[in-house]
Description:
Blueprint: H1 2-10, H2 18-38, H3 50-68, H4 76-99, H5 103-128, H6 151-170, H7 176-195, H8 199-215, H9 220-226, H10 228-251, H11 273-286, H12 297-304, H13 317-350, H14 352-369, H15 378-394
Helix pairs in contact: 1-15, 2-4, 3-4, 3-13, 4-15, 5-6, 5-7, 5-15, 6-7, 6-8, 6-14, 8-10, 8-14, 11-12, 11-13, 13-14, 13-15, 14-15
Amino acid sequence: MLVCATGWLCFRSGGFFHEPRATLAIAAWLGLAVVTLAMPSPLAVVPASTAGRIAVAGLLGLAGLTALSLLWAPLGEAAREDVWRLSLYAAVLPLAVASFRERWVARGLELALALLALVVVGYGLLGDVGVLDLDSSFAADGRLDQPLSYWNAMGALAAVGVVLCARISIDRARPPGVRGAAWAALLPLLAGLYLTYSRGALAAVALGLVTLALSAPEARPIWARAGRGWRLAVGWGAVVVLAGALVLVAVDRASPPARGATAERFADIGSNRADYWRVAADSFAGAPALGVGTAGFRVEWLRERDVAEGAVDAHSLYLETAAELGLVGLALLAAFLGGVAFCARRLTSDDAVLAAGPCAALAVLALHAGIDWDWDLPALSLVGLLLAGTAIGRAGLTGES
């Protein structure tokens, strides 16, 4: 049901607008109440590990702080939209934890999310070639943006699909037919990724594939023969390359950002993100404890911007949280993300076959959320929360339960 709900949001502009987001938030809280009451004990929905409990508490706390910041947020209506969105996330995570504790269900999630990415990207490709008559936003300027309505989000979802299908295709525990289908699905997913012309999505898929190569048990004999030095070199080399690419995108102002459906975008590193991030950092410095209030970045942007461009998001979950919710919000976000990361690491040690795909996909989304406004697009965020729920729900559990 959670995957179906996420798919439904994908075809409702990614859940960006109020009605589908609020509808699903109400349904998620009702579902959580039903699941809690149906369990033998209410504590059955609580994660088994301390790190998992910290992760869930961190997200619940972040949702609560977002609601509390209505007291000092400058824009009431926009702030209430953020409250609805965080309310949805706060309900979905514990639902995912309860839903994916069984190993066979968690293994099925990997397949379901790969299929979801294929369906969504395939739908966009059919519109791109004229088979389907799809509306495309003027801002997309020819880039693949439907049905999520944002090309970079489509790129991120395609990147998740690529990583998951790559994992399934080499997973010797899967039936040959499933592995072959995953290989075949890589072609449309890669085509969709390319046609979004999303540089951030390319960086994210590269990180995801490196993470997969380092974590998949099928690759371990190769790394064992390569030796520890080579493993460290590959891992840190990937980190340095990605960090350097992000710095170039952030600081280069030699040319305006390329527009239009052209591969020239991949060679152009111009970006306005440095301006967004500067304003977010300045906002955090001005109100470090609790921030300027949820949805307050857009006000700060209008006041402090150096370029004549409208923006409502800082294009970084981490910097926007700092600007709008201050150190307290950052601490809660760190509790959530750190708890998920610890659970993912624990799951990799306990069950590498299960962990490799979700961990690689989470790496994709964690990077992309740092350079775009994924957190404001529930369809994409829910994919990450379902994967996080798998890591939290299975961490510390052994065997085939």
